[in-house]
C-alpha cells in the first residue's frame, strides 16, 4: 500500500509539472488575469490606488491554485475516479459562457448541472454524469480549503444600502471578496484522444482500485493519467463581520455541500435515479447557499452599520497610524485628544494641523471601550489612514439579489430586447 501511495504522489507531481508548460494552462491564467484586472480597476476607483500589482495577485492565486490542484489530483487518483475527459470539457465550455454573464458563475456546479440535465433529458450529448459530478464535488471541497486560507485576501471596502425591514433602508460598510484560482490537475481518463502528453497508469493497484468507474468501462480499457486545467472562483460580501471571519464561515458551508454532492454522485454509479438527484442538487443547492448568504448580507446584522452621530471604521490602511495604534475594523471612534467625534468634519478639523501626540478612545465591535496612544515628534500625525462609515456616505456597490439563476433571466432579457428592437 505504501508503494501505491508513493507512486500516486510521484506521478501527480510529474504530470502537473508538465502541465505548467502547456498552452491551455496559460490560457486559463490569462482568463483569470482579465478577471483580476476588472477587480483592480474597481479597487482603484474605491481606494484611489492598488494595494498590490496585478502580476502579484495573479502569481499569488496561481500558487494557491497549484497546491489545490495537487490535492484534487491526489484524492482523484487515490480513490480511482475514472472520467471521460470529453464530458469534462463540456463543463469548461458552459462555465466560460456563464462567466461572461457574471464572474461568480465561473463554477462547475452550474455547468455540471446544466450539461447533466440536458444529457438526461435528450440523451445528447453522451456525458459521464456520475464521473463529472464526483470531480466537481472534489473541486468544491478543495475550493473550501482555498477559501478558508485565501478567500479574504485583497478584500475591497465598499458602501452598500441594506433593507432593515419593509420600506426601511440603511447604509452600511462591507467588504467585496473575489478570488480566482487556476487549478492544474490530473484525472484518470478513458476514451480520450489528444496531443497533450499523457501517462499510462501502471500502478501497484489495491484490489478495490479504481473505486469509481463508468459501468460501460471495459475490463481491458487503457486508463491514462491525463493533465487538465480547471478554474475556481469565489465571490462574497463581508457584512456581518470581518472578511477573514466570513470567508471561514463560507468555507465551512461549502465543505458540507461538497461532501453531500460527493455522496449523491457516488450513489449515482449504482442507482440511476441518483443521477437526477445529484445533477439537480449541484446547481440548486449551490445557488441556494449563495442566495441565503446574500439575504443575510442585505438584511442581517452588520458590524459596519452606519449610525446617527457615529464614526465607524471600515478600512485601515497597511502601515498607517491607525494600524500602529491598534484600531480595528468595526471600531467606533468616540474621541481624539479628548474631542468628541461625531462627524467626518470634526475628524478633518483635528488633522487640519499636524498632531505630534494622539490618544484615541474607541469602542470595538463587542462594545468594549479602549484608549489607544501614538506619538510622532519628528513628522507629526496628519491622518489616521482609515476609511469611515457615516450616515451621510453614498453607496458605491449594489448587492445582487434577483432570485434563482439570474443568468437565465439575464439571457432571456437580452433575447427579448434583441427581438423587440429588431421588430421595431
Automatic annotation (TrEMBL):
SUPFAM superfamilies from the UniProt entry: PDZ domain-like
Q: Name one Pfam family in it.
A: PDZ_6
Q: Where is the PDZ domain?
A: 288-343
Cited Gene3D superfamilies = 2.30.42.10
Q: Is rRNA processing there in the keyword field?
A: no
Q: Answer yes or no on keyword Transmembrane.
A: yes
Key words, A-Z: Membrane, Transmembrane, Transmembrane helix
Q: Where are the transmembrane segments?
A: 12-36, 63-83, 90-123, 129-152, 173-192, 217-239, 251-267
Q: What is this protein called?
A: Membrane protein
Species this protein is from: Caldicellulosiruptor diazotrophicus
Could you read off the lineage of the organism from its UniProt record? Bacteria, Bacillati, Bacillota, Bacillota incertae sedis, Caldicellulosiruptorales
Amino acid at each position: 500500500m505504501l508503494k501505491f501511495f508513493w507512486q500516486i504522489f510521484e506521478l501527480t507531481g510529474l504530470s502537473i509539472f508538465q502541465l505548467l508548460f502547456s498552452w491551455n494552462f496559460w490560457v486559463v491564467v490569462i482568463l483569470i488575469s482579465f478577471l483580476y484586472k476588472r477587480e483592480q480597476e474597481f479597487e482603484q476607483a474605491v481606494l484611489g490606488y492598488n494595494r498590490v500589482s496585478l502580476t502579484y495577485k495573479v502569481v499569488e492565486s496561481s500558487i494557491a491554485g497549484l497546491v489545490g490542484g495537487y490535492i484534487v489530483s491526489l484524492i482523484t487518483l487515490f480513490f480511482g475516479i475514472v472520467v471521460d475527459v470529453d464530458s469534462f470539457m463540456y463543463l469548461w465550455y458552459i462555465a466560460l459562457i456563464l462567466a461572461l454573464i457574471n464572474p461568480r458563475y465561473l463554477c462547475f456546479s452550474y455547468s455540471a448541472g446544466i450539461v447533466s440535465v440536458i444529457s438526461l433529458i435528450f440523451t445528447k450529448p453522451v456525458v459521464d454524469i456520475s464521473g463529472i459530478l464526483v470531480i466537481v464535488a472534489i473541486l468544491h471541497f478543495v475550493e473550501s480549503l482555498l477559501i478558508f486560507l485565501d478567500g479574504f485576501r485583497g478584500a475591497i471596502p465598499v458602501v452598500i444600502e441594506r433593507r432593515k425591514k419593509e420600506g426601511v433602508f440603511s447604509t452600511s460598510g462591507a467588504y467585496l471578496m473575489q478570488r480566482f484560482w487556476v487549478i492544474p490537475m490530473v484525472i484518470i481518463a478513458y476514451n480520450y484522444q489528444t496531443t497533450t502528453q499523457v501517462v499510462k497508469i501502471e500502478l501497484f493497484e489495491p484490489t478495490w482500485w479504481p473505486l469509481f468507474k463508468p459501468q460501460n468501462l471495459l475490463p481491458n480499457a487503457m486508463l491514462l493519467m491525463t493533465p487538465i486545467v480547471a478554474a475556481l472562483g469565489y465571490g462574497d460580501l463581508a457584512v456581518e463581520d470581518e472578511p477573514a471571519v466570513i470567508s471561514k464561515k463560507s468555507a465551512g458551508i461549502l465543505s458540507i455541500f461538497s461532501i453531500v454532492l460527493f455522496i449523491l454522485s457516488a450513489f449515482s454509479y449504482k442507482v440511476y435515479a441518483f443521477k437526477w438527484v445529484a445533477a439537480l442538487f449541484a446547481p440548486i443547492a449551490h445557488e441556494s447557499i449563495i442566495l441565503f448568504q446574500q439575504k443575510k448580507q442585505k438584511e442581517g446584522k452588520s458590524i459596519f452599520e452606519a449610525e446617527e452621530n457615529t464614526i465607524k471604521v471600515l478600512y485601515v490602511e497597511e502601515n498607517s497610524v491607525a494600524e500602529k495604534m491598534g484600531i480595528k475594523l468595526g471600531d467606533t471612534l468616540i474621541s481624539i485628544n479628548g474631542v468628541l467625534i461625531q462627524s467626518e468634519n470634526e475628524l478633518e478639523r483635528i488633522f487640519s494641523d499636524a498632531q505630534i501626540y494622539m490618544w484615541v478612545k474607541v469602542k470595538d465591535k463587542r462594545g468594549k471601550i479602549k484608549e489607544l496612544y501614538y506619538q510622532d515628534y519628528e513628522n507629526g500625525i496628519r491622518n489616521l489612514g482609515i476609511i469611515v462609515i457615516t450616515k451621510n456616505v453614498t453607496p458605491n456597490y449594489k448587492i445582487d439579489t434577483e432570485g434563482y439563476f439570474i443568468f437565465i433571466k439575464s439571457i432571456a432579457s437580452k433575447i427579448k430586447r434583441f427581438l423587440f428592437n429588431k421588430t421595431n
